[in-house]
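Changelog entry: the PiggyBac transposable element-derived protein domain-containing protein record was regenerated in this release. Current contents:
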Amino acid sequence: VEDVIYVAPEAEVKIVALNSTQSVVVALINLLPISTYHVFVDNLFSSPDLFRSLRQHGHGATGTARSKCGIYNGLVEAKKADKAGKSGFQFNEIKVIPTANNQVNQVAWKDNELVLFLSTVFAGDERTERWRRRPSMKTPTARPIRRFLALHGQPAWNRYTNQKKWRECLYNEVFKAFHSESQSRQLFRAGDEFTPATQHKHVRRGKS
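Regenerated structure tokens:
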């Protein structure tokens, strides 16, 4: 932690105004033995100002963040759009935007929902692989993860136990998808070869 935290000298320090809730975090850390700490906080406390203040005191900080904590507005808008499944994030995608003073990283990560983070320690490119189960929720926010897991080992459809059933599924889906665009009557058939099949008018003729 000491290698990645920049402690501002007194000449550069500007007092960061904190509300009473955020001030509790700083006060509690000051009660600990003097050292460099990496503090993990809940979104009740997280804000860019608190994290900048902790950094000035020589501590790292990481925590989830609320939309109204002062985080970058573009990530807030993505969080709002995520409720309708329109955030533009793919499952497990991460976007990191530093604050204007380049002291706090603002992170958005797509899991079941879009999760917002703040950190003065992590850059956003650290990865830890974990087993993940498909969520039971079917809301628009969960579509990316359900799509990802359906393609990578946890399909949302029943498995086929033999080739016959699998082939039936394939050609049924092909017929369903392309029957309206079929041009089968154009080749080796008499009559109009340019009218789409959907516009053909079939006439029942009696036997001669």
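Helices lie at 20-30, 48-56, 73-82, 143-151, 163-178.
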